[in-house]
Amino acid sequence: MTGSRPALDRDSAIAAYLKYANRMPKLADGHLPAQTQEVANILAIADQFDVIIFDAFGVLNSGADAIPGALQAVSALRQRGIDLAVVTNDASNAPEAIIERHRKRGFDFTVESLVSSAKYIVPMMERHPDVTSWGIMAPSHWPIDRLPGDARLLGDDDADYDAVGGFVLIDSDDWNDLRQQRLETSLAKNPRPILVGNPDICAPMGHFLSVESGYFAHLAADACGLVPECVGKPYREVFEDILQRHPNVDPSRILMVGDTLHTDVLGGLAVGIKTLLVTRGGFLDGYDDLAGLYDLSGLRPHFIAPAIGAGLE
């Protein structure tokens, strides 16, 4: 954790997801499938669904590039008349910017089809009317003037950490060891709310896993004994946003597609929809003990495929 976009190895990321599983959503009875069906790609099961929700990183793209076959898969789903949506924990960019990057990769998603965790940051903060000042983990370009109360970017001044009434962790791009130490020290002295706009522990960036805000939030919570409050996958708001758009669609006809058990699959299972885990190009690329991971986590998807467009490249 020494510079822009610190990295984390996969075994450490898995260990962190397992360690902090008790801070994540719980499943209702009957929401965990008894077994996982292997499929060639998403088209093999597409006729079972009216709505398909995609995670972006690790499903549609890895870093800047579209995952092979993903463009063809999305095009084929459109031809079948299936409603498509994208759910992202990228809270540091405007929806228009996120969609523009997808368009440059060749996808035809619209702003209306995107649900970002950023949408729920202000409502989360407003649940704390007694907090009037906030310390923000975010890049310097992030529009903190849109946030309620006195919001200040957290940097290298110790006084900023002690002066605020709560913290909002949005993006770790400019974060480092020293800033994390300041955060943990301040919280240990005076526990205050820790709100998280991107609860991911890591994200696939092509050839490495970037450490995300969720990882630092859990470390900060360990220092003060508080549980972070989070919006974004696997928490309910982003999924319920999609469900509310399709009130007449049975949840069994809605599919969440992702590359991680503890964000995408857990989030889908928690709201009672079907789930597809992909293993190529994302978090689990090259991982060879999925059965063991199912056992350790107590989670499993309804379906598993190499990629949404495997064989369509």
UniProtKB/TrEMBL annotation:
Any Pfam family matching the protein: Hydrolase_like
Gene3D superfamilies in alphabetical order: HAD superfamily/HAD-like (3.40.50.1000)
Domain of life: Bacteria
Coiled-coil stretches noted in the UniProt entry, renumbered to this chain: none
N-terminal signal peptide: none
Classification via InterPro entries: HAD-like_sf, HAD-SF_hydro_IIA, HAD_sf
Record protein name field: TIGR01459 family HAD-type hydrolase
Organism this protein belongs to: Thalassospira marina
